[in-house]
Write a structure and sequence with these properties.
seven-stranded mixed β-sheet; OB fold (Dihydrolipoamide Acetyltransferase, E2P); 473 residues; 23 strands; 10 helices; binds S-adenosyl-L-homocysteine; Rossmann fold; alpha/beta; 3 domains
């Protein structure tokens, strides 16, 4: 097989990156085909030849999958952010559940099963039912945060959109269908201002030009808007900023307008210094009955509707009665901690980013949840310290680690602390499966429940909540 060869592939599976996986009719090599979905029979061109498989790009659907739906967004394929957009939504949910089952089986050697015949019956240890993925009623326009790079298209027009493939050219696309339509209006105001006063956009190659990105956040329940303009320069370089602010202020719900300075030659979006031009340095939003202040730098789940379901599930699994001591490890700005604190005696939150812990403390005060204590540090280092405090002995440990999962040392500490319940919130089923296997290996816990939650409709990622219950021997 060579690059640029044309092949016909029957797609039987999806990869974690959202490519269709399949073989040619002679059954030899495996192909990962961009833009193809499970059930398709496609013609594709080989883009890269590896030792045991090839990458390819779909040229034409010969026989479409029965699950194929037309893309709603005209740039879906070029953008690549929505690898599942051409798959019917109920099938997206089914695929995500199957992914969780497969990872638990193959990586965790856990006999995960569903009530669907599409997956063969369970074998082996630790049988667990994986519930149907919790999805959205309306899986569009859910994102509360948008980061638009500002630059020039091939005709040198000023545009906001996304990078085309691996190039530095930006394809104009202000109105992402996963974000609120208000984003596009705000982007157009900023672009019009830049055009009027000949304000340049940043160019990554030459590290020149001024405006790099537009960061827009939207409070789902409050309707508040935040606009942060990220520039390679000083505020005075943003000519007639007062006029821009006056126009943006007219946008309903505008609560915060700022400029962020990022003069570094980096692809990190935000710099350290933020200068407020109007309103408050944050916007407010709520999840359930809790209020949160969210600044340009704050980590906040991007899908507020599903976040409420995710945290509701974690809270349900924690089984709190009001008397429990809970650890919330990898707590971010304390969102899960505060959810739990409403039903617990005491919650200890641990997070590695100091600024996030500052936010967590502020959010605890904002909600008068004083039965919380937040600590900066890595979960693996802080947990052994917390272990030395008798009053902090946990009844429930909640973890919500990044994709790489929990540190082995932390898993050991958790087993040594022997909480009644462990609630594992995971953004990567592969590392979830790996870590659950280690915890189950101890023989001290039973895997009770697994609930996939769809935080990212149209994309391939799946979030999972798992409950481990201590075996009373
Ligand atoms: N529970 C939060 C955040 C989850 S994201 C929420 O739902 O909003 C994972 C968090 O883990 C991030 O805030 C990240 O900064 C933090 N983190 C990454 N590695 C860590 C470590 N070793 N110890 C503690 N926190 C860590």
């Amino acid at each position: 097989m060579n690059k640029n060869d044309i092949v016909e592939v029957a797609i039987t599976d999806m990869s974690d990156q959202g490519e269709g996986i399949g073989k040619t009719q002679d059954g030899g090599l495996t192909f990962f085909v961009k833009d193809a979905i499970v059930g398709d029979f496609v013609r594709a061109v080989v883009t890269k030849v590896m030792k045991n498989y090839c990458y390819a790009k779909m040229l034409e659907v010969i026989t479409p999958s029965p699950d194929r739906v037309p893309a709603r967004c005209k740039v879906a394929r070029a953008c690549g952010g929505c690898q599942f957009q051409e798959i019917a939504y109920d099938v997206q949910l089914k695929l995500k559940r199957e992914t969780v089952i497969r990872k638990l089986r193959h990586i965790g050697h856990i006999a995960a099963f569903d009530d669907d015949s599409s997956i063969s019956p369970p074998e082996g240890k630790n049988p667990v039912y994986v519930a149907p993925t919790l999805g959205m009623d309306d899986p569009w326009r859910y994102r509360n945060k948008t980061q638009l790079p500002i630059g020039y298209d091939r005709e040198k027009n000023l545009v906001a959109g996304f990078y085309a493939g691996r190039t530095h050219a930006i394809i104009a696309h202000e109105d992402c269908l996963l974000a609120d339509a208000g984003n596009a209006e705000i982007a157009r105001i900023v672009l019009a201002h830049m055009n009027r006063y000949k304000i340049s956009a940043y160019d990554e190659n030459s590290h020149t030009g001024l405006v790099r990105h537009l960061l827009i956040r939207h409070g789902h329940t409050t309707g508040q808007w935040m606009v942060c303009i990220i520039i390679n320069g000083r505020v005075k370089d943003l000519l007639h900023a007062d006029e821009l602010v006056a126009t943006l202020k007219e946008h309903p719900g505008m609560a915060s307008i700022s400029v962020n300075i990022n003069t570094k030659n980096t692809n990190v979006i935000l710099g350290e210094e933020t200068i407020l031009l109007y309103g408050t340095p944050y916007i407010e939003d709520t999840i359930g009955n809790l209020k949160f202040h969210i600044g340009p730098h704050s980590f906040f789940q991007v899908n507020p509707v599903q976040t409420e379901k995710l945290y509701g599930c974690a809270l349900d699994f924690a089984g709190l009665t009001g008397n429990e001591v809970v650890w919330d490890l990898y707590c971010g700005i304390g969102t899960i901690s505060l959810f739990l604190a409403q039903k617990a005696k005491k919650v200890y939150g641990v997070e590695i980013v100091p600024q996030a812990i500052e936010n967590a403390k502020d959010n605890a005060l904002l909600n008068s949840l004083l039965n919380t204590e937040f600590m900066v540090g890595s979960a693996e280092d802080v947990a052994p310290l917390l272990r030395k405090r008798p009053e902090a002995a946990p009844d429930v440990v909640v973890v919500d680690p990044p994709r790489k999962g929990c540190d082995g040392k932390l898993l050991e500490t958790m087993l040594a602390m022997a909480p009644q319940r462990i609630v594992y919130v995971s953004c990567d089923p592969a590392t979830l499966a790996r870590d659950l296997a280690i915890l189950l290996e101890s023989g001290d816990y039973r895997l009770e429940k697994v609930q996939p939650v769809d935080m990212f409709p149209m994309a391939g990622h799946v979030e999972t909540v798992a409950l481990l219950e201590k075996l009373n021997k």
